[in-house]
Write a structure and sequence with these properties.
The structure holds 2 protein chains of 2 kinds. Chain A is of the alpha/beta class. In chain A, about 30% of the residues lie in helices and about 20% in strands. Chain B has a domain of about 180 residues. Chain B has 13 helices and 2 strands, in the order ααααααβααααβααα. Chain B has a two-stranded antiparallel sheet with strand order 1-2. The longest helix of chain B has 27 residues. Classes of the chains: A alpha/beta, B mainly alpha. Chains A and B meet through helix 11, helix 12 and helix 14 of A and helix 9 of B. Chain B: One of its GO terms (cellular component) is plasma membrane.
Chain lengths: ~550, ~325
């Protein structure tokens, strides 16, 4: 699907008409069977700011990874300054004038700022081969800091500066070293959510810097902050599910319409078996979490889920929703807070104890936390029950029972092509996930916590997983569903919590006959001034940039 | 659905895999090495393929095998135990001291095993509670244990004074087979069973194959790491007392070659240092390779220095050849 066929916003410049610094044409990339970007084309004109917006998983990071040489596309071409650009490594991309600021900081904490600023450039400051001329390095570093308008002593240890300043240092490095040190006339800087970690003061310096660079180079942004995107971009491209949806300019659109482009999909009620959604009864909660805190100085979350209820939790990638799920399950130790399962007492959650009490946890990172790909299906299946179901009290393994139980679940969940002895690596993502699901189904759980259960799962398996979730709620299982997929969040949940920076900013009811709109949830995820490191919990009061229709939800949450 | 389940295509190794309950690939190569070494040395020296020599080899290899059994679990779960040789030395020194102070006779065997388990537990506690890499922990305790042992021994070999005790090692309840080798084979069989048929064994594979996965699924990872180190120490203690009984004394050089030989045997046997792959059953083959190599080169009159070179090269070559080709993994 190319963007030109999907919308009447006729995007893209006419071929050859604009002298672009970067031309991306028909870029596609798959990881295994999963297509992460497909047929994406866009341009970065010279001396301009271009922004890519889209939901989590829309493919923005993959595009950045290709442009910065961390991965290669399957097909499609990239031309930089009119020449073919196939870097092959990050180093070569940097040599061609493309630098990148990563979402996670890559500065070395315990060395002086100037060493970080000139990391990888030491060879320019050596005399007699190996002797490093510190003074020359410090002079060059000072020049960069002054140009960036920062108040930083380059000789001090990087770790002495707070997170926001360090982020500014990193941005300055990416933006200015190409020109100042390498003499690149027209640098292209890739910035992934650059301002989410900046405080107000550093943000101003950042925007000044952007305007400076725009005089000779170009910037390609990824950002969730649509107000800011509209402020600084010359061109905005909207990505959805790995494909380009549209190209707009700030003066022809507004935040609301951008939201629409980002999420605009049809929501099919029967896909999520919404007709099977039951209002939770008045039974005692199956799980209660009190005062769970997952971020330092962050807010505390209190929630409860009743038998047969699906509580959805949504939020941006940095909202702390995955950490919250892990903390409630007891996979990681929460900074504060206690959890009660069933009618048990409130206690510090610990996953071993939680599973014995009837909780199951399905992690988002299937390949590193969910399954051991090199091990047989039966082994992966029985992992959660080694302490009781599949070993006797002398510690002997009950291999035959393990085998028959595996076969039963392979049958019941239609895990195609699986046998107990087959290594998991040979199964598709969907079938792997079904094995993880079976791991907990075997234990007849009372509570299930699922983190992005359908990530990397094909559509068919997705729907089967949804069906199993509905079966479970029919049997009175309480489910906490953490997901980046808005439609899934809306379609499956009885109730939705929106998280920002580790705290609940809104609670939105989602009965089958009055499901909330996607735009409204997106607005809630983006609303407010909350930023990482803010000492106070984000206030539930609506911020200025929340569209009007989001307000009722916030009021509900306040009740 | 069940009708579509077919057994894996049967391999020539089917009897072995049935015995161990897990499909083993790549076992042929180490077995082939054992056979080639056997044939090679049989042709090169007359004294190699004799019953007398086999008695000698089995006696020498027994301590190595017993010590390797526990250490294999440690490697299997992705950690490393460098201190087994030092535990052997310390337990040997303690055993001799205790034997000479109190006449406890054969009770020294459970005593030594318990002391060893205690030392292993020390390793395990520092490793799990301190969250320090096992390499560092056991490198440290390697030095500490050796130091304590040499202090006890005062740097000299001390003979024990317990008549008849040496029979537990050098007696031959089965003709031509020294008892120490019998112990080793029994211990191997028990440990293979533990590795393949118990919860402990399964958890070792799970922790080595994907510690985070095991933890996320509620496996008490830390506790089982402790068990593994205690088991490794227990077997090192057991091996130590048998070695002392065999030699009639504990001296400063007791266990000194075990550090390198144990790791070499485990790795050559096919247990990956990355964890999750291999097992105790394979370690027997690794021990055989190391032992036959040692013995055969000795019989051929090859100098000690050249032997070291050859052994090192064989270890590297064995792992190089049996390693999964093209495996894209971090090597450390």
């Amino acid at each position: 699907m190319s963007f030109s066929s999907t919308t009447d916003h006729r995007p893209g410049p006419p071929p050859g008409a604009v002298d672009s610094l970067l031309e991306v044409r028909n870029l596609s990339k798959s990881y295994g069977p999963i297509r992460v970007i497909s047929d994406v084309s866009f341009d970065v004109p010279r001396r301009s700011v271009v922004t890519l917006v889209g939901e989590n998983g829309a493919g923005k990071s993959t595009i950045f990874n290709i442009l910065s040489g961390l991965t290669a596309q399957d097909s499609g071409t990239v031309r930089l300054d009119g020449q073919d650009f196939t870097p092959g490594s990050h180093r070569k991309a940097v040599a061609r004038g493309i630098t990148r600021v990563f979402q996670e900081q890559s500065l070395v904490q315990n060395v002086p700022v100037y060493e970080n600023l000139l990391l990888g450039e030491e060879a320019r400051f050596t005399r007699f081969g190996q002797w490093i001329d510190r003074n020359a390095m410090i002079r060059a570093a000072r020049q960069i800091i002054e140009e960036a308008g920062l108040d930083v002593d380059v000789r001090r240890k990087t770790g002495d500066y707070d997170f926001s300043t360090r982020q500014s240092i990193e941005i300055a490095r990416a933006c200015l070293t190409p020109t100042i040190l390498r003499g690149v006339a027209e640098p292209l800087v890739l910035l992934d959510e650059p301002t989410s970690a900046l405080d107000r003061r550093d943000e101003e310096a950042f925007f000044t810097l952007v305007n400076k660079i725009r005089r000779y180079g170009s910037l390609l942004f990824v950002s969730h902050r649509l107000t800011e995107v509209l402020d600084i971009s010359d061109v905005i491209y909207v990505l959805k599910d790995g494909a380009m949806v549209t190209r707009v300019t700030p003066d022809e659109t507004d935040e609301h319409r951008l939201h629409g482009f980002m999420v605009g999909r049809e929501r099919a009620a029967d896909y999520y078996y919404e007709n099977r959604q039951q209002p939770p009864g008045t039974a005692a909660p199956a799980i209660r979490a009190e005062g769970v805190q997952v971020l330092p100085d962050g807010p505390k979350v209190t929630l409860e889920v009743r038998p047969g209820e699906i509580l959805g939790i949504g939020g941006l990638l940095d909202s702390g929703k995955s950490r919250l799920g892990k903390a409630i399950a007891g996979v990681i130790r929460p900074l504060a807070g206690r959890v009660a399962i069933g009618d048990g007492p409130l206690r510090h959650p610990e996953i071993g104890h939680s599973t014995r009490k009837g909780l199951g946890y399905i992690p988002a990172e299937r390949l590193t936390e969910g399954i051991i790909a090199g091990f047989p299906t039966a082994w992966n299946f029985s992992t959660g029950s080694g302490g009781d179901l599949f070993s006797n009290r002398f510690g002997l393994w009950r291999g035959r029972k393990e085998r028959s139980a595996t076969l039963a679940h392979i049958d019941a969940l239609a895990i195609r092509s699986a046998t107990p002895d087959l290594t998991m690596a040979r199964l598709s993502g969907g079938n792997q996930q079904k094995v993880v699901l079976a791991r907990w189904l075997e234990r007849k759980p009372d509570v299930l916590i699922l983190d992005n259960p359908t990530r990397g799962v094909d559509a068919g398996a997705k729907q089967e997983i949804y069906r199993v979730l509905r079966d479970l709620t029919d049997q009175g299982v309480a489910i906490i569903l953490i997901t980046d997929e808005l439609l899934e969040l809306i379609g499956l949940s009885n109730r939705i919590l929106i998280l920002q920076h580790g705290g609940v900013v809104a609670e939105v009811p989602a009965p089958p006959d009055a499901k909330p709109e996607e735009q409204r949830l997106v607005a809630l995820m983006l609303s407010g001034p909350g930023r990482p490191g803010a000492a106070s919990p984000p206030s539930p009061a609506p911020a200025a940039d929340v569209p009007a229709e989001a307000k009722p939800a916030i009021l509900e949450a306040a009740q | 659905m069940t009708t579509t389940i077919r057994p894996e295509p049967s391999s020539p190794l089917a009897p072995i895999t049935r015995l161990f309950g897990r499909v083993e690939t790549g076992l042929w190569f180490p077995i082939g090495v054992v056979l080639s070494l056997f044939i090679f040395f049989s042709l090169m020296t007359d004294s190699f393929a004799t019953l007398r020599n086999f008695s000698a080899v089995s006696g020498q290899a027994a301590t190595l095998l017993i010590v390797c059994l526990g250490a294999t679990f440690i490697v299997l779960m992705g950690s490393i135990d460098l201190s087994v040789g030092a535990i052997v030395l310390l337990v040997g020194a303690v055993s001799v001291t205790v034997l000479n102070a109190f006449s406890i006779g054969w009770l020294v065997i459970p005593f030594a095993a318990l002391v060893g388990a205690g030392l292993g537990l020390v390793n395990g506690l520092i490793y799990t509670k301190g969250k320090i890499p096992s390499f560092i922990v056991t490198l440290g305790t390697l030095s500490v244990f050796s130091g304590i042992a040499l202090t006890l021994l005062d740097g000299r070999a001390i003979q024990f004074n317990a008549p008849g005790l040496e029979n537990i090692s050098i007696g031959q309840w089965i003709p031509r087979l020294p008892n120490i080798a019998l112990w080793a084979i029994l211990a191997w069989a028990v440990l293979v069973f533990i590795g393949q048929r118990t919860r402990f064994g399964r958890y070792m594979y799970l922790i080595g194959g994907g510690e985070q996965v095991a933890r996320t699924a509620g496996v008490p990872v830390e506790r089982y790491k402790l068990y593994a180190f205690a088991l490794s120490g227990l077997l090192a203690g057991f091996g130590a007392v048998l070695a002392v009984a065999r030699l009639g004394a504990a001296g400063p050089s007791l266990g000194s070659d075990l550090l390198l030989n144990s790791l070499a045997a485990i790795v050559v046997g096919g247990t990956s240092l990355a964890g999750g792959v291999g097992g105790v059953h394979r370690t027997l083959i690794g021990v055989l390779i190391i032992a036959i190599l040692d013995n055969g080169l000795n019989l051929m009159g090859v100098s000690q220095f050249l032997q070291m070179i050859i052994k090192g090269l064989v270890v590297i070559a064995a792992v190089l050849v049996s390693r999964k080709s093209g495996a894209d993994q971090v090597i450390k």
